[in-house]
Amino acid sequence: MTYCVGLLLNAGMVCLSDTRTNAGLDNISTYRKMFTFNVPDERVITIMTAGSLSVTQTTLARLDEAAVDIEATPQTSILLAPTILQVVEIIGRTLAATSKEIGNRMGESASSASASMIVAGQRAGGDMRMFLVYPEGNFIEATPDTPYLQIGEHKYGKPILDRVVTPETSISDAKKAVLLSMDSTLRSNLSVGMPLDLAVIEKDACRVTEQRRIEEGDAVFREMSAAWSIALKDGFSAIKI
């Protein structure tokens, strides 16, 4: 399982993913689930993935291959598509085709050949946009009413996002929100695990302005997790019924 979350704010976009992939309690591995495509000063695209590892890796490999193909066109390359919407349409088509192809090979196990993606991006002169792409290739977009998207094991980390995140949320508070959302998920589901990948794309920067990996023993994350636990316990004790 996995957990990835993206926030679409007035000030920019914040993305966070875990890296755990498991096929049973005795077969746990670490794989990156966040990928960035960038044309300096022209466009930035960040993709987070959840689901079948073979589907996501094959889809990303095909997107990367198409992006560097000397015969690439705006209809085939996410680095040439004229809008972020068309970027997402390319990703959706590639994901759907890959899922179907791998599913056909798997026969009766085809139901496991499923994956979804969060795509966050901006072109110079255009708006920041964020989409959730489903296995069938269709997608939905983050809006001011719901300025975040989640894939994977999302239920544990959703409450804090519902309560604190709005389009006006600052980048600093947004990082805190996604990290606490992830912390809640880590505590409740062993199939989601460290290390974590965090990326920030500030508005109109057309590049990732902050990117870092948060390891298991990260002091700042551990301190934040402990402080959140204390705050929840204090808040619970303070409520009278």
Question: What's the short version?
Answer:
The protein has 241 residues and is an alpha+beta fold.
Order of helices and strands: EEEEEEHHEEEEHHEEH
Low-confidence stretches: none
Tell me, briefly, the overall form.
globular
Q: How much helix, percentage-wise, in residues? A: 25-40%
Rg computed from alpha carbons, rounded to a whole number of angstroms? 18 Å
Q: Provide the CATH topology.
A: Glutamine Phosphoribosylpyrophosphate, subunit 1, domain 1
Could you explain how this protein is built, in words?
By secondary structure, the protein is of the alpha+beta class. It has a single domain, classed as Aminohydrolase, N-terminal nucleophile (Ntn) domain (Glutamine Phosphoribosylpyrophosphate, subunit 1, domain 1, 4-Layer Sandwich), CATH 3.60.20. It has five helices and twelve strands. The protein has a five-stranded antiparallel beta sheet with strand order 10-1-2-11-12, covered by helices on one side. Helix 1 crosses helix 2 and helix 3 packs antiparallel against helix 4. It is globular. It starts with a strand and ends with a helix. The model has no long low-confidence stretch (mean pLDDT 93).
Q: What layout of secondary structure does this protein have?
A:
Layout: E1 3-8, E2 12-17, E3 20-22, E4 28-30, E5 34-39, E6 43-51, H1 53-68, H2 84-106, E7 115-123, E8 129-133, E9 139-141, E10 148-152, H3 158-164, H4 171-188, E11 196-202, E12 210-214, H5 219-238
Helix pairs in contact: 1-2, 3-4
How would you describe this structure in keywords?
5-stranded antiparallel beta sheet, 12 strands, globular, alpha+beta, single chain, 5 helices, 28% strand, 241 residues, Glutamine Phosphoribosylpyrophosphate, subunit 1, domain 1
